[in-house]
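Kindly inspect the following:
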Amino acid sequence: MKHAAIVTNPLTDPVTNLNRRSVHRVVARSSERNTQRRDWLRRWAASLVASLLTMSMAGVARAESARERLDGELEKWLLSAGVEVGLSGTSAEAKATGTLLTGDRATNINQLLGDEGVTVIAPLRDEADVLSALLGVNFGVMTPAPFDIPSHPRLFFDVSILPALTLESSIVREGDPEAFRLPPDIPGRAAFVAERLVLGRGTKITSQQQGVQFHAGLGVAFTFDLGESRVRIKPSLHYSRTENKVSATANRAVRTLNEDPFVTVGGRTARFRSLDSFRLISIGDSFTEVYHAAGPALEIEYVTQEALGPFAVSLFIKGVASHIFGDLKTEFVGSNPLIPEETVRFKLKNDPWSYMATAGIRLSFTPDFNFLR
């Protein structure tokens, strides 16, 4: 059977036109979806790039903000206050000598049995360090950097007020010069108590830093940036005022009886021991010396990334070597009030250099001085 061929006109056939319209609609929808997808990808990529740029700019802004804060500080006055702790010290040498005894003394003196020599005190000489702990406050001011050159040198001036916290240092010491007293448990068969057995005898010369130390420094601060950190190197000329209390004591017990007397108490006889068997010599005095000194100092200050409100926080360490001006000697002669010919000469001489090492924490801020312009 032959089938008749059906010939259609694609321009007029309704089915063909319907299929063409469907294909066009599918293609149009597919193209629209592709366009939407491309738009979404472009928007996502743009958003990602914008986010990355925003994060990068934020990091740069933070870095620039820190840099601006540090750089801006170089162009302003800087005021500071802080707490400072440390040690200061020097060395001293001392000696003490006594004249011959001229008053009464027992005739059976025997140094082998514990009696002393023929002078008020035996000659003494020694040296030692005089140290003190320091705890106080520090105030400072720094000028703007006048020149835009490496290290940005700028002038600074600071003051430290540091009370001395210390005990006296013994420069010379022999025995224990305190209140006179007899030792306990003296053997009953001993005819006398030897001079060296008396407690409280001895000689000492001491020095003690006292009061409030005053320190001031004038110098140039050099600024160096290490990454986002800032370090200042601050050499200066340093002045200091300190007080030292110099004390000297010489106690001597001179035996005046050849034997301690016997006494009978309750039918029992024994030797009577008392300080009445001795001439007790006590010579001493004390003086407060004020010393002025000047010398080089070096401070290293680290500016931290921390802040307390408007205050920047920094840590510092400082070393000072000062030459003491004026008379370094303290010398005096003390005499026995009862027998003025019996004297002791005390002498103390300080080393001409004193030293100080401190550390501390400092708060600083940049005030607005526009009213000065």
Remarks:
- The CA atoms of residues 174 and 256 lie 23 Å apart.
- The first strand starts at residue 78 and ends at 98.
- The mean pLDDT is 84.
